[in-house]
């Protein structure tokens, strides 16, 4: 009996233990877990969603999804989801399983080379448990997937492999939650994190923040700024990483709401300041945010802008930099003279091998005080370096050279390095610094014609959707910055960048802003496709104006501006040598009868006492200048010589003060120069070149020197001063013929100023203005009949190289990579034109003179409108930024036509 009692007692204890163990496990599975506490603290981003189907549905409606869905990573994800859904029980059960629940996705950097994701998915009902069990059983049975299980620190991990794609994922369950990732390393890290206990949320600073209950919010997005350098370091070259690490230290973390529209993506919320010593935030310590008032000075070709709104700009300085040198006292005073705004802007570049132009802009508290300090610094530099302070006039502006390395960095901190020397320009309440004077001259020109952010309809529309005031703002135009991105992305990632170019370039307007709000920063991230306003039908030509003439037209449509309102007009010449003006509305304006055909192009200058636009051009033996009524100006025309055959006219304004020089060349290679009164300039009557010119002479201003660049068809290169004298090192011969102009990049001096030319046989030659060849490279030449030309755009900042060979036309970019090749009906030489309107808006025009057909191609080499145009002359094309459409003027026999077209977005 006692033995039986003992036996029953032992059995009862065992049964009670089993019941208690089962109850404990049941309780464990019932226990609610904050999924945020499972996320490793090294996550760069965490995204929380609660309505999977609505998010996917809205994404599909956006243009963002249209672009994103074609990316390889998105396609692989879709394929895996489709295969999993094919083995899931029931119809579309996988999508319904993911719907209506809070799902976390964390983003991590692994091994300094990969980005991986972890998904945290709750299982909230018995039906969902049953669904998962059946799905697992079906995976085991499927030939598509392979399943393996293993034990890791007390948890059962399951590895699933897709045998078709070679991809896979690992998952385990924890308290009615599935943790899943393609990275077994991350899954094992989470297991170790659980076993260590004392779980804390990576987003503990935002416990009470949840945007998901608000209308049109699709996700909470947690950002770990301390991990940003690791993320960006995967793609960017190491030379940029010090600046990336510094800027990333402005805030430590953020919680943002995700909103989407058809052509934009918003992330808005709050960021917590970085508290670590030496951080960007601790140095800046901004107070009230500031408006972007420098928008009136920023060219539309700006690619990247870093803007800081801070009361005391001098906070940005590195106190130790330059301390104790002879310039430190005046630099200290100069730094304290700036307040409210300081910015660093990079301009659009056109190849990845050239450093982009940049400018630093700072607002002055007192223009007179800052101007006096700049003058004092210039005098001090001149005294120490034993040379006269250099300055140059450009129109009404003075460009002052401060020959001291990294002045902007000494004034505004390490973000502003890279200024070997600084040219300084005062504009209204701002000072602009640039390493090269040509950059400031181009800036002045952009402001003069209104090509700035403050007057750009597209840019103003973008800025209206950004924060109107900020302390730290970063603006990026991905189209303008395309070659900059190519230049600074790691070599192994450049292929991915090119593959994803359609997405990156399509959503081209990006901003990231921080504005002080009590103890946090209100944060706004905007990823936006440039707004496109109403336009004509996409893809085809729409005829707007057709004007018949009594006589055959013998010239191309010359583009001019109206002398009064600057509207775009056209001038054409007929076979009776009469010039006809066509206004912007398509009506006939003035006429002017000439004795011979216009040679070269028609140029516009501000002449006369009223300084209004006048039209200057050359005929066979004369230099003509007429007003907006077609009447000759006083002193004009200049009769250069009745026996001459002039080829082209160049107009130079050395100091932008309307003291023009008119230079013409004849068929023998003689050069003649005159002033506005018809006086012959000494040294140019004539300046003999011994051979015909290959292109119109160019004027370059280099460090206060005026250089006139002359290319001859026999391959000789001349660099002349204003008296026609040859600079040292010139002339020199390329020993190969040239038939097109060169493109110059002006540097700080003659040695650092470079000119690129291409010979008829495809040698791309870069030389400096000391007459030294810097490099020479041969383009592919498939046959001896292949001939090459260099085609600059209207601004002279970008170019393409064209190869013609037996009816085929190939186009090469500035990196000498072939972009496209087209075959045409005849083998005769074609008239090829290149129009670059910036921001990726490019058009190529190829005219066959025999069949009298012109073909227009977009930047993707697609034939615009699907057809050719009847045309026997070069065409003129304008771009309308507001409507995002193009206007083309063409002549054919006795008719001038104005057509419009719109390119696909």
UniProtKB/TrEMBL annotation:
Q: Which residues cross the membrane?
A: 5-23
Q: Which SUPFAM superfamilies match?
A: NHL repeat
Q: Which UniProt keywords apply?
A: Membrane, Transmembrane, Transmembrane helix
Top-rank taxon, per record: Bacteria
This chain belongs to the protein called PQQ-like beta-propeller repeat protein
Organism of derivation:
Pontibacter aquaedesilientis
